[in-house]
Structure formats: C-alpha cells, structure tokens
Amino acid sequence: MRSPRNVPASGGGLVAHLPAALGGGGVRLYDWQEGPAARPDDPGTPERLGELLGRLHGLALAAPDPPEPWYEALDEVDWEHLAGPAAARRPWQELLAASLPGLRRLAALVTPSKPDDLITCHLDVQCSNVVVTDRGWVLLDWDDTGAGCADRELAMALLRWFTADGVDGAAIRATMAAYRAAGGTAVLDPDRSFAMQAASCVNFVAAQARLALDGAYAEHHADAEEGLMHALTALPEVATYHEVARFAAAAPAPPN
C-alpha cells in the first residue's frame, strides 16, 4: 500500500504548527504525487481497489480513539424548517423537500459501531484520493484516518466507485475477489454495513442546508448550495445498498 512520503518539519516532527495569527492549527506536508486520479471504469480498477482495501483491513490496526460522530450518529435536524419557508425560492428547496422520505430511510439505518469491530480505517477511499503512478496506486488524504469498521469502509468504497451509473455487479464481485486474496475478511450486512455511508450522507445534506441558510456565512452560500444539489441528486436508495451487498456476497468467502 503506497502513500505520499511525509516531509518532516524543521524540528524533525511530522506536524508543524501555524502561527496564532493563522489559527495555530497543525499541518502536515507530503511529497507531491504526479498522475491522474483512478477511474472506476478502468478495467484494472476492481483488482487494485480490492487489493488496497484488503491490505489495509488485513492489518487490523487498533484504533486509539473512538469513531468520529459524523460517521456514527445524526444531529437533530428540523427538516421541515430546512425545506420549508426558510428555503423559499432557493434552487434546492423543492429537491430537498422531495428527498425528505429518502433521507429518513437512510437515517433509520444509522447505528453505532460495535467496539470490538473497530480498527484504524482510511475513511475516505474515493477516486479523487487515489493517484495512478508508474509504481501503482498511491492513496492520498490520510488526514481523516481513524476508527471505523472494515465492513462499513468497504461498503462505502463499493458504493462510491461502482454505483454512479447503476450498480456494477461484475466490478463489485471482482473487487471482492481481490479483497479476499489480499487478506480482507469483512462481510457486508445489508442492514448494518451501510450505516457509515448513510450517516455521512445525511449529515452532509443537513450541514450544507444549514450553511446555505446561515446569513453569517453568505460568502459560503454558493459552495454550500452546489454541494447540497450534488448530494441530493446522488442520494442513494436503500435498495442500492441491498444490491451492492448481494453482489459482494457472491464473491468467495473469507478464508478461515
């Protein structure tokens, strides 16, 4: 599994701290990786994606901290307010109102992880975070790495990579075969494994709708509305979760 090389800070550590005038936060610097982003429609993608996830999950590294709430729970959301008069004449108001039943179906799937299932996960394995190089794939953006369940990260990856134009069952089966060969043992449960993806989706929609209506952040309204429209247009169906799980189950069983 390849990732960008860390560039040490002046003191030798991997994290440098910004001046207080710039917020005082910690930053990390990595080598630049040249190359195009991975493509779901590339014939070699299922094998490479399965190998990447299988190696990562096969390590089963202990997670030092609890999961981020973003992936595990939902904020209390007044959807009628967000999609009601406050959003009148906004370009996304009607789409959000029409999407409320689907958002509630996704919300019903959100459950906390079982503590014994938690390992260290990347948590953002998507096409834009994978660079194709002459040495193979390089996985970027490790900044969100943290506690997660292998089956939930696997489910999210399969959804992101192979459902944009309908569920690509052949690609999912090929990914799972490579995943098993690389040491991955996660099994998708259609009722639990998609909880992280559902939580992320619902939380993102709520956050962008709130931001788009917040007068204190007018400079961010356009970006929030664009993100909201994209998320609502691509809102997954629970039936899609079940279809992905069915194709994943058709792959070879995990080794004993």
From TrEMBL:
It comes from the Bacteria. Residues 19-180 form the Aminoglycoside phosphotransferase domain. Signal peptide: none annotated. Pfam families: APH (PF01636). This is Aminoglycoside phosphotransferase domain-containing protein. It comes from Nonomuraea gerenzanensis.
